[in-house]
Design brief:
This protein is rod-shaped. The protein is of the alpha+beta class. The strands form four sheets. A six-stranded antiparallel β-sheet has the order 3-2-7-14-10-11, with no helix packed on it. The chain has two domains: 2-96; 101-280, Galactose-binding domain-like (Jelly Rolls, Sandwich). It has helices at residues 2-16, 23-96, and strands at 101-103, 107-116, 125-126, 128-129, 135-136, 154-156, 173-179, 184-185, 188-193, 202-210, 224-230, 246-247, 253-254, 256-264, 271-280. The structure holds 2-acetamido-2-deoxy-beta-D-glucopyranose (NAG) (5 copies). Residues 108-109, 111, 178, 214 line the site of one 2-acetamido-2-deoxy-beta-D-glucopyranose.
């Protein structure tokens, strides 16, 4: 304030003495200039303080913004990781949970052996083509159940003969075969029906596996039970050709399989079906 008060009149004085170039005047002029300089440097100081204040304010704002952003990023990062992990887990689950694959039931030498009066863990009684109570329909032999063609049917009468309509006809019959492919892990099964024979549809079926050679397969002791349960029933108005795949736990590979029907849907002279499909999760062609 004092400096300002002094400088105001001095400035006029400087203007008055502009023309003069004598040394005392010069001194006065210098003094005035100095005074102005002091005044100017004071303004500079104020500006400097303002600049410092602005810089500090900006620094504070930047620091706060940065920390908030970092916090947000830190909070976002684990979420992103979780999502990635979930994606990877899903991918891994998708690759480990392999869809059941249909196993081609190609038998060695094309030999599918029909059986009758045969029970789980019991001896196999080999059936022959014909219309007697120990036989299967000649035009509908056991290999039709394994040929991958839903138009061809396997039909068995035992313990009845053709035309004898009873609940028991065709029960405890089936077939066994030796897979050309060698030992395969089976954990899925599906039946494809015979065109319109609803009453002759299998209802309770079993699957057994064996690793023994063909001459031993007639013995019940050679077979290990893998599946023994109901299969999906179709409605009488259904046009469905095949049921749904029944998945079951199994960890054993077998090269021979025996399939038996122990109950059917209704009253008829036979048990009939077009396909028995076996599925394997770890199976690749
Ligand atoms: C996800 O799996 C891919 C491919 O296996 C791998 O490259 C990536 O690092 C995995 N990501 C995480 C987050 O594990
Ligand atoms: C397949 O046929 C060959 C030749 O006829 C015979 O030697 C072999 O024992 C048969 N194998 C089976 C499993 O029937
Ligand atoms: C399936 O069986 C039917 C009836 O025997 C036959 O006409 C048809 O050609 C077969 N299909 C195949 C692909 O073998
Ligand atoms: C197979 O299943 C049927 C029907 O549930 C049952 O009565 C029978 O005892 C079972 N047999 C074996 C050997 O588990
Ligand atoms: C059947 O034989 C195969 C091949 O030798 C083997 O890998 C598999 O474990 C055997 N299955 C059983 C139940 O022993």
């Amino acid at each position: 304030m004092n400096l300002n008060a002094k400088s105001m009149p001095n400035r006029n004085h400087v203007n008055d003495l502009k023309a003069q170039s004598t040394s005392p005047d010069s001194i006065i002029q210098t003094a005035n200039i100095q005074s102005n300089t002091v005044n100017f440097s004071n303004q500079k100081k104020n500006i400097l303080w303002v600049i410092i204040f602005i810089i500090v304010t900006i620094l504070v704002i930047v620091t706060i913004t940065a920390s908030v952003t970092l916090n947000r990023k830190n909070r976002t990062r684990p979420t992103k990781l979780t999502i990635a992990t979930t994606e990877n887990t899903t991918t891994m689950a998708a690759t480990t949970t392999i869809e059941p694959v249909l196993i081609p039931l190609d038998a060695i030498n094309g030999t599918v052996i029909g059986v009758y009066n045969t029970y789980i863990g019991g001896l196999s009684s080999i059936s022959t083509p014909g219309d007697r109570d120990d036989q299967y329909e000649e035009t509908e032999p056991p290999n039709h159940a394994c040929d991958g063609n839903v138009s061809t049917i396997y039909s068995t009468f035992s313990p009845c003969g053709r035309g004898d309509r009873q609940q028991k006809c065709g029960l405890n019959t089936g077939f066994y075969l030796q897979l050309q492919h060698g030992p395969i892990l089976v954990n899925g099964l599906r039946i494809c029906y015979a065109y319109t024979s609803f009453a002759s549809d299998p209802y309770i079926v079993s699957l057994e596996g064996s690793n023994l050679s063909s001459e031993h397969l007639i013995l019940g002791t050679s077979w290990t039970l893998i599946y023994n349960d109901t299969i999906e029933l179709r409605g009488t108005s259904s046009t469905t050709t095949c049921g749904t795949v029944q998945i079951f736990p199994n960890t054993n590979h077998y090269s021979n399989y025996r399939f038996l029907v122990s109950r059917k849907v209704g009253i008829s002279d036979s048990v009939r079906y077009s396909e028995v499909e076996l599925y394997g999760s770890g199976f690749h062609l």
